[in-house]
Amino acid sequence: MTYAAPVTNELIRVGVLGAKGRMGSEVCRTVEGAPDTELVAALDDGDALTGLVDAGAQVVVDFTQPGVVMGNVEFCVRNGIAAVVGTSGFDEARFETVRGWLADAPSASVLVAPNFGVGAVLSMEFARQAARFFESVEIIELHHANKVDAPSGTAARTATLIAQARAEAGSGPVPDATTTALDGARGADVDGIRVHSVRMPGMIAHQEVVLGSADGEILTIRHDSMNRTSFMPGVLLGIREVRSRPGLTIGLEPLLGL
Amino acid sequence: MTYAAPVTNELIRVGVLGAKGRMGSEVCRTVEGAPDTELVAALDDGDALTGLVDAGAQVVVDFTQPGVVMGNVEFCVRNGIAAVVGTSGFDEARFETVRGWLADAPSASVLVAPNFGVGAVLSMEFARQAARFFESVEIIELHHANKVDAPSGTAARTATLIAQARAEAGSGPVPDATTTALDGARGADVDGIRVHSVRMPGMIAHQEVVLGSADGEILTIRHDSMNRTSFMPGVLLGIREVRSRPGLTIGLEPLLGL
Amino acid sequence: MTYAAPVTNELIRVGVLGAKGRMGSEVCRTVEGAPDTELVAALDDGDALTGLVDAGAQVVVDFTQPGVVMGNVEFCVRNGIAAVVGTSGFDEARFETVRGWLADAPSASVLVAPNFGVGAVLSMEFARQAARFFESVEIIELHHANKVDAPSGTAARTATLIAQARAEAGSGPVPDATTTALDGARGADVDGIRVHSVRMPGMIAHQEVVLGSADGEILTIRHDSMNRTSFMPGVLLGIREVRSRPGLTIGLEPLLGL
Amino acid sequence: MTYAAPVTNELIRVGVLGAKGRMGSEVCRTVEGAPDTELVAALDDGDALTGLVDAGAQVVVDFTQPGVVMGNVEFCVRNGIAAVVGTSGFDEARFETVRGWLADAPSASVLVAPNFGVGAVLSMEFARQAARFFESVEIIELHHANKVDAPSGTAARTATLIAQARAEAGSGPVPDATTTALDGARGADVDGIRVHSVRMPGMIAHQEVVLGSADGEILTIRHDSMNRTSFMPGVLLGIREVRSRPGLTIGLEPLLGL
């Protein structure tokens, strides 16, 4: 990813929670490697959060566990440290709780994103924008053979976003003339959108949204994630932008300026 | 399709049965347009088969109905006319019956092909050849939104051919770590091979066979049929080759010389 | 295309210029077939433009020739008829002339679009939006073998839009380590963006924009136009929307509300 | 890759030349990891070839340099060790020299393969087989942005194989109506076949052969190599099979039993 780093003389002081985990350790490397960020604290299970304050962290990145992330976020808000959160397990109730903390700290800021892949987020956003112009849409996602769930979280969320956009545009259900089908042939139904999950050794993480109309136009938005580090540009974008967005931001989309 | 027409001075005399049907009428146009064939009889429902003999037909193309095709084939065999058959409804019992007729007419020849798309047949053949070299394989087929069955006949047959090739090579089941899935997400199971059916306005007839191995190699064989006339080159190939293959030939594969 | 037609009791009265041409005749059929439009005049070479006024046309669609289109547009502006123009040959000088006419007729409106394919326009727009987030981008366009120019106008325009977006974001040139290349292997250079043109019998009109970044994310935006009628939804959108946009509108993009 | 290892009680004794190189070190790991092979010698620059004999190597794998590989192969032939060679730089003159050595050692065997990717070799073979059935064919290859040559060696070889197959079938030149083109738009010409080279950060090694005919059939054979280890299954196949093929074998194709 190549959006320019903001020109500045001061490095952003970053703390990482879950620093020994798979994602957290990647974040540490990324923060150390970027020209405008500095790793000042790398904490994991058992380390005291006060280490973040002692180190003067301005932004904290949290890739921990659903069971501890809320305490971490509250600590950051109370101590004026911006938080970039990739830990899963957030629902509307949790978002409300975070908003409550932020109400008492108007200049604090929290970014919670279910997906830090800039390409993945763009492809979801484009699928949502295009949805109302086409009669139908289906999703094919392809992942490595060790994945235990189907469809992927990204595919399910893409389907939901598309279904909402179609409903807002009054699009009606997608056409489907199938009368005879083998069980499973037509994929899973997520909010009325068909999703097909391929599991294949050699694949990594791939998704295709296919939109079509009877007049013969097909639009395909494909995203390929060729390795795990492809989430780091999004994390870095979050670190750079979070402090300029007081309050709670959900998802990377608002930071992409689309 | 561009395989050269055999150089010859005499035109092949062709009769068409089902000449008013969608496929039959295309065959008539194709036979009239090709440089080495001549349309001598175009019969449909109610016309007497003796018209084929009167016209001196050397090869008959049959795109009729399962209910009448056997009578047509028997007439051709008895009268020394080679038959190229695209009508559906053939099973092993019917093939045995045809072989019985042919036993009494050693120089007669019948070609029955479930698919005259040369590209479709090639892609099935390549998928079969490649199957044993990859840990896993899945099929994605995409058709227009008016198709009533899923998966397509071609996809089901491709899956069966792949499963046979894997069994012969001792490949074992394809890997699948899925433990949590929405109903249908992982597609239909055809002989142990997963098949995904997309239905989309604007599409015509498309199929992708994706093969992968854990070491990171992916092989994809994709076939697109952009309109109905794409079956005609295969029919023409059948017309040209059927007489040089006495007896019963099933499928276009033997004529492709792979 | 399925965006809903605005609910209204009155039909839009449409005139077509170039009504006997390939595109114009399609427009006539489309206008006659749509539930909210009515064909009131179908003029071609030699017909007097006053026929548009006599017929009470509210919107005129022009698919004529570069040599006559300017006169047509001026006539429409002078007579208070909105114009939807698909004729090629517009440059900045022509746009200035049109703006001059419109200055004297503040409620008049003209839409000039180089491409009425909604999917094509969306894919250009998405490519433009995504450009600044990726280190590199190339374009592959595939068309039927009778096309005489390469690259296609759409591909060239897409490259230019991408180059502009990258320049605005300060992206720098795309990386390219090639030191030894066969002539032409790396495609054409359009404003610094590589464009590859495939010409293939069986293809119709297809384009892929591939964006990649070194961290392993690839985003592909593919558009397939399976037949010529795929431009009609965009023409219909223009007919419906042009009168609500006084002045000159260039391109379909503003009407898509992205 | 999953073709079963032959059941046997004895391990194949393997020596590796160029054992410290990028490919050689991968081969060492692969030989040590496979259930039916044993690494008995790992030699590099400066080590005496007699080490192969001392270690009782039955098969030697050579990933060295064009300047030394001929000496290595001669040593193997003279000492009754089968050779599997991936080093580049072989031409017909070198093959003749190897055949000369083998003439004096009828039971010796040498396999020289320019590409050990089983999927890549299959895709070349399928492209060659399909070539004569389609009016036209073009190749698109996509590699990472650090690649210095264009087109890739595999793409150039694929084009040559296709051109030969078309010539043998009397196919004539591919159709191309282009009269106006930007320099490079139509790709490089390799034996009359157009080849397009995309260079993109995030890509690894990918190739698409697209075949089309005017009747609307498109066949696409795509190969993706997602990482470097994807060559090892082919090397292992060579190790297992080379001794059963006395004389010189060029390319992996004969071992795939297509």
Tell me what portion of residues of chain A adopts beta-strand conformation.
25-35%
| Overall number of strands of chain A | 13
| CATH T-level topology of the largest domain in chain A | Rossmann fold
Major sheet size, sense and barrel closure of chain A? 6 strands, parallel
Which class of the largest domain in chain A in CATH terms? Alpha Beta
Series of H and E elements of chain A: EHEHEHEHEHEEHEEEEEHE
Could you tell me how far the N terminus lies from the C terminus of chain A, measured between alpha carbons in angstroms?
Answer: 16 Å
> Roughly what percent helix of chain A?
25-40%
Strands in their spatial order, largest beta sheet of chain A = 2-1-3-4-5-13
Average of the residue pLDDT scores of chain A: 93
Largest interface: A-B, 47 and 47 residues
* Quaternary organisation of the protein chains: homotetramer
Pathway (chains A, B, C, D): Amino-acid biosynthesis; L-lysine biosynthesis via DAP pathway; (S)-tetrahydrodipicolinate from L-aspartate: step 4/4
Subcellular location (chains A, B, C, D): Cytoplasm
Function (chains A, B, C, D): Catalyzes the conversion of 4-hydroxy-tetrahydrodipicolinate (HTPA) to tetrahydrodipicolinate.
GO biological process, one term (chains A, B, C, D): lysine biosynthetic process via diaminopimelate
